Amino acid sequence: MDGSVPADTQEAEGDVADWRTVPDPKQAGWIFSQELLHKNKDLKSLFLSVDVRHDPSEQDRALVAFYKRNKVQWASPLYCKLQGDVATGSGVDRHMMSTVIFKLMSGFHLSFGGAAVTRLFEGEPDHLVPSGSDELLSSGMFSAAGRMMGHSFLHHGPSFPGLSPAVIHVLFGGSLETAPVTVRDCPDLDVRDAVTMLDGEGEIEESVHQLCLSWNLPAPNARNRKRLSDRLLRRAVIEQTWSQTNQLRRGLQETGVWPLLTLRRDVIPVLFPRESDAQVTPQVILDCIIWPSSLTVFFERYEEYEESGTEDVCRVSGYLKTFIENASAAELKSLIKFWIGWELPAREMKVEIVEASFPSALTCFEKLRLPRHHRAYATFHQDLCACIAHHSSGFGRS
């Protein structure tokens, strides 16, 4: 979900759409969130503050501490602050929600079990499962993760992509026996190898016998190997993460989004999209861009506009189009985050050609400012890459 208003929700006064009946699930989620936030608009605001001058571990501890608080009305008004940064407004909120989901996907700089980076979910894309760490479970990290996901959804932030369909099935009340588990859902390579061997017709190695014995399962033989394969897989993927999934559910419920997800199950894929569906493509970005007027250039230093020939504007705009068309997926995400504060394109993203030394952005206004002086694509590419590579330190403001 992005922070813009879906066109179909911009109803005439007195003709407000109902999230229960509106056909489009994204629209239903947007309407539900707006109603819930409006209902709680007079509650005391939640204050989320991170000091960008601190090292990553301290910043991550601040995020986790915020979401590990209990008895919080998560649909209260939200005020985000980046200490050590002059940015204010909705751009900071977008940046914070984007950071929270990014950390859920990539890991927090927190020391659990001696690891430099702690990942709450493990496995391959579109088959992520909760970590089996008892330390993460006992510390309530999965409740915090559920709050992060629901909170971002409420504030039209990024969704959490790539969660295993089997975990989603159990998360929303499906039985363990009917969970659509596949071998790709199992992050444990030893279990994967054992399951693959049991599914085949070849000789069963001693390591598989030892694994079954350690899990109090019967010894494999020609008659039970297929059934044993399924039991191993379900235990590794579902049973060993059952408590983590329950914590995740409680965290989601606390944010207030559960009525929407139970009554509109078609919204669940909006909250937990496939990672492949969540990827940003060049055409998606290009379709969102509002290109600059060919006759106006903004002089940042003097905050004045003057008319200019079309040559500079067309040339630099063309450089940006070329960059987008040839950028990697990682570069596209960095560009969008530099531009508007998170990795998902907004419905309208503005471009200005300016008299300046380097690219900059006004994230609150979803506006990218590009210097007019570039005469070669190579130097434009170099400057833009340098700027978007450092979006996390200030997320690209002028």
Characterize the main sheet.
Answer: 6 strands, mixed
Q: Which class of secondary structure composition applies to the elements? A: alpha/beta
Broad shape: globular
CATH fold title of the largest domain: Hect, E3 ligase catalytic domain fold
Radius of gyration: 24 Å
H/E element order = HEHEHEEHHHHHHHHHHHEEEHHEEEH
**Helix content estimate:** 40-55%
CATH class descriptor name of the largest domain: Alpha Beta
Q: What oligomerization state is this entry in?
A: single chain
Name of the CATH architecture of the largest domain: Alpha-Beta Complex
Layout: helices, strands, pairs:
Blueprint: H1 25-39, E1 46-51, H2 56-67, E2 78-83, H3 90-106, E3 121-122, E4 129-130, H4 134-138, H5 141-154, H6 165-171, H7 189-199, H8 206-214, H9 225-237, H10 242-254, H11 258-263, H12 268-271, H13 275-278, H14 282-288, E5 289-290, E6 296-299, E7 304-307, H15 310-326, H16 329-340, E8 349-355, E9 360-362, E10 367-371, H17 377-388
Parallel strand pairs: 1-2, 5-8, 6-8, 8-10
Antiparallel strand pairs: 3-4, 6-7, 9-10
Helix pairs in contact: 3-5, 5-10, 7-9, 14-15, 16-17
Summary, kept brief:
By secondary structure, the chain is of the alpha/beta class. It has helices at residues 25-39, 56-67, 90-106, 134-138, 141-154, 165-171, 189-199, 206-214, 225-237, 242-254, 258-263, 268-271, 275-278, 282-288, 310-326, 329-340, 377-388, and strands spanning 46-51, 78-83, 121-122, 129-130, 289-290, 296-299, 304-307, 349-355, 360-362, 367-371.
